[in-house]
Amino acid sequence: MQAADQLIDQATAQMLDSIDANDLLYQVQSSFDYDPGPDLEKISASLFAVNTGDDLINPPELGILQQQIGRVAHGRAVLIPADSRTAGHSTHTKAVVWKKYLVELLHPASTDPEKTK
């Protein structure tokens, strides 16, 4: 228990030393009223919307992503099942989990057997 407390104290001290409070507040506040919904049809670029099965901020059970992705002309929703690699909403910081989808987005020919012939 003492080792766990020390680890938490150390991680907290490192975080507080490297984060600007005003920047963090700006980041958090900018998401309060963010709603891409009204302009989804305006997106013309290819888009992957990635979510994980354990995301509590954007829970897949609500079906919002699956319902709305159809409004994006070249949009695709990807739901990564929760497993030992995912970390809920924080999975966005773990590129190893979603990297293959980014590669596919940036280099579609490398993942499409028809385009590599």
Describe, in plain words, how this protein is organized in 3D.
By secondary structure, the protein is α+β, with helices and mostly antiparallel strands. It is globular, with a radius of gyration of 18 Å. The chain has five helices and two strands. Helices cover 41% and strands 10% of the residues. A two-stranded parallel ribbon has the order 1-2. The chain starts with a helix and ends in a 6-residue tail after the last helix.
Q: Could you estimate the helical fraction of the residues in percent?
A: 40-55%
The number of distinct helices, counting runs of at least 4 residues, comes to 5
Radius of gyration: 18 Å
Q: Summarize the helix and strand pattern as letters.
A: HHEHEHH
Oligomeric nature of the chains: single chain
Which strand order spans the largest sheet, edge to edge or round the barrel?
1-2
Biggest sheet overview: 2 strands, parallel
Structural class by secondary-structure content: alpha+beta
pLDDT under 50 segments (min length 5)? Answer: none
Number of strands: 2
**Overall pLDDT score:** 90
Provide a quick synopsis of the model.
This protein has 117 residues and is an alpha+beta fold. The chain is 41% helix and 10% strand.
Keywords:
117 residues; alpha+beta; two-stranded parallel ribbon; 41% helix; 10% strand; globular
SSE inventory with pairings:
Elements: H1 2-18, H2 21-30, E1 47-52, H3 64-68, E2 75-80, H4 95-106, H5 108-111
Parallel strand pairs: 1-2
